[in-house]
Amino acid sequence: MAFNIREQLAHIPVVGHETARMTQAFRSWPQSYWSRPAYCPGWTATDAVAHLATGGEFYAQVITSGRSGEPKLAWGASTIEEVRAARQAAVQQLVHGGPTALIEGFEQAGTKLQAVLESLQEADLTKVAQHPSGLIPIGLWIGMRLLELSAHDWDIRQPHELHAHLSPTAVPALLSGLPDLQLRLLRRRVAEGLDGVYALSASDAGWGFTIQGKTVTSQAAAPAVCDARLSTDAESMILLTAGRADVTEKMQSGALTLTGNAEQGKQFCATLFRAL
């Protein structure tokens, strides 16, 4: 499944909107919010914001080098271990600076990244940027950043809101990019024993995957004939894909239905729906 270049470019303002919205929310927090536990085990809100701030810097650097035709790792690193060490050092610097440094770091990195994204041309989106997991087309990085923002925004709020939801502004853009993300995840994770055709639907959107051995291909529309069919709402599909929702709980509540070969469908879910 090839991503839609114009659709990806249209998502750039959504990234900017979510960055601005979250910056405003962080500025309104009382001191006590920064130490509240987040959904991610062992993380506080401080950790999540620091991660997002350094993520903005990381994205800006790798997209800039990728569009030049010479994809490189961020922070001048030559190995994945050096990238992780550099990012962790940047995280610690922000954490030690307290809320003011965290908010400024998040806003400044977001502004830098937004300028890079808004300067992209259609031809840039098919070029590749260097991710620790490999080379990824620049067009996909737009949706990746939006998912990172949305997922960690939810992480911060979920333990403290009775019914935490993803930002309604982000959901349509996230959903449109989900099939491409799922294809990339399946190609990295699939193992023997999943041969078959799988149909997925979320709200009014539908798509599918065919797996043969370790080869995964995608269909832009949900196939009428399949071995297993998964149906849910848009937000649940996004949270499941991001590893923020439990398949069993979603099925028990009726939010997720699985028809066809149940065991095969559950194995497919276990492969696709886990932490990123």
- What ranges have pLDDT less than 50 throughout 5 or more consecutive residues? none
Compute the number of helices: 9
Order of helices and strands: HHHHEEHHEEEEHHEH
Give the name of the CATH superfamily of the largest domain: dinb family like domain
Beginning-to-end CA distance, first to last residue = 20 Å
Q: Would you give the CATH topology of the largest domain?
A: Four Helix Bundle (Hemerythrin (Met), subunit A)
Proportion of helical residues: 40-55%
Strand order of the largest sheet: 5-4-3-6-7
Overall tally of structural domains: 2
- CATH architecture tag of the largest domain: Up-down Bundle
Q: Briefly, what CATH class of the largest domain? A: Mainly Alpha
Largest sheet: 5 strands, mixed
How many strand elements? Answer: 7
Protein model, in words:
The protein is of the alpha+beta class. Helix content is about 55%, strand content about 15%. It contains 9 helices and 7 strands; from the N terminus they run ααααββααββββααβα. The protein has a 5-stranded mixed sheet. The chain has a two-stranded antiparallel sheet with strand order 1-2. Strand 1 (about 130) and strand 2 (about 135) form a beta hairpin. Helix 3 (about 45-65) packs across helix 4 (about 80-120) and helix 5 (about 140-155) crosses helix 6 (about 170-190). The radius of gyration is 19 Å and the shape is globular. The model has no long low-confidence stretch (mean pLDDT about 95).
